[in-house]
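Support reply, case 0932

Customer input (verbatim):
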Amino acid sequence: KEEAARRLGEIVKVDRLKNDFLSVAQHQLRTPLSGVKWALETVKTDTTLTSDTISLIDAGLERVKDSISIINNMLKTVEGENGTLTIVKEPTDIVGIVQTLIAELNFIALKKNSKVIFTSPSSLMIFADRNKLKAALNNVIDNSIKYSPNSTINVSIEENEGNVSVIVKDNGIGIAPDDVPFVFERLHR
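Our regenerated output:
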């Protein structure tokens, strides 16, 4: 009876991990795929391919590449022996990452009638997992733009005594005080 209960507990745990993975995959793909959708819809309405349209197509393709990278990383994590997240640190220009994200998310800002102002040094190298850092910053900046229509979003990078801060300020709805304890819980909205 104890062995059956232990096995059932393991099965429930594996099922929870599988469901968490599927939820995270769905959540992570929403933004990149909406970028592709928007780019393709724009191409559909134009009668000729302009340089702007080509830029939109390129941005859409970049989002697809990001999606594939995210999926591959999540699959590696789930398939890992102990299911832990692997961090691969390498020299990374955090300014370049944020500049790229802001450019890729510009279609949302335009749609929301918002403007993103970015203040930073010209370059700042850190030692980090580029893909995971990009995914985390994408979520923060994307949410800031989505929930701050008709406004200005300020993104800045500051270095202070060996620490680097990415600061995102917006005029969005914010986080309800009752939800603050759950900010770092997976998929809590």
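We compared this against your earlier run and they match. Two observations from our side: Residues 2-45 form the longest helix (44 residues). The mean pLDDT is 81. Please reopen the case if you see a mismatch on your end.
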